[in-house]
From TrEMBL:
Stated name of the protein: Aminotransferase class III-fold pyridoxal phosphate-dependent enzyme
A single GO molecular function term of this UniProt record: pyridoxal phosphate binding
Annotated keywords: Aminotransferase, Pyridoxal phosphate, Transferase
PANTHER family per record: ALANINE--GLYOXYLATE AMINOTRANSFERASE 2-LIKE (PTHR45688:SF13), PTHR45688
Length: 225
């Protein structure tokens, strides 16, 4: 909270104030950190106390990846003014969206004109709706929670620092970049994240099952040797 207040103080000294606070619902670029409910609710309260709006970024953590709800902001009990969606929204098809309340959208068009060359493309909309149908029909959110728990439990038997939720998992290692290269040699591709790139970013497809977890853990063990 102190950093938000400090940033607001800087804005006010320049004659402005906080207009919007945008927050990722899992801190992926910071090393796959999972904030507490109290922290996230506090951020929302700080934004609104300043007269600003609150945006929940679900581009990476949304569509059930957290394994509890379709959207991560639901896990915290947040009521965002905006939600940003993208990447998994079309399962490979390029599509993204900004979701907001009707009164905000209506207020926006009263003061400005919005135009998008590709906005509302019917093919993209069908792709996005189909993704939502498949997630619901196949129970992917629940499966993501179960498979993610299995993956984290297996990793915790091999290394001490494992964190995350659902199928968004971080593993902190002394040489994460080098280890990612060794994993690649065993047929597994992962990225790195965190301020110094010291965390493996494990974000597999939501269709993973126990068999894929087993193959991943086998490759992980081999890369540790």
């Amino acid at each position: 909270m102190e950093r938000v207040r400090a940033a607001r103080a800087v804005l006010r000294r320049a004659g402005h104030d906080l207009a919007l606070l945008a927050v990722d619902t899992i801190f992926s670029s910071a090393g796959i950190l999972t904030p507490t409910d109290a922290f996230m609710l506090g951020l929302q309260e700080e934004a609104r106390a300043a007269g600003g709006l609150f945006l929940a970024d679900e581009v990476q953590a949304g569509f059930g990846r957290g394994g509890r709800n379709l959207w991560r902001f639901q896990d915290f009990g947040l009521t965002p003014d905006f939600v940003t969606l993208g990447k998994p929204m079309g399962n490979g098809h390029p599509v993204a969206a900004l979701v907001t309340r009707r009164e905000i959208a209506e207020a926006f068009v009263e003061v400005d004109e919005y135009f998008s060359t590709f906005g509302g493309n019917p093919v993209s909309c069908v792709a996005a709706l189909t993704v939502l149908d498949v997630i619901e029909q196949t129970g992917l959110v629940e499966r993501c929670g179960q498979v993610g728990a299995e993956l984290r439990a297996g990793l915790q038997e091999l290394v001490p620092e494992v964190r995350g939720q659902g199928l968004m998992v971080g593993v902190e290692l002394p040489d994460a970049g080098g280890f990612a290269e060794r994993l690649r040699e065993h047929g597994v591709l992962v990225g790195t994240t965190g301020p110094s790139g010291g965390v493996l970013k494990i974000r597999p497809p939501l269709i993973w099952e126990s068999a894929e977890v087993g193959r991943f853990l086998s490759a992980f063990r081999n890369a540790l040797r």
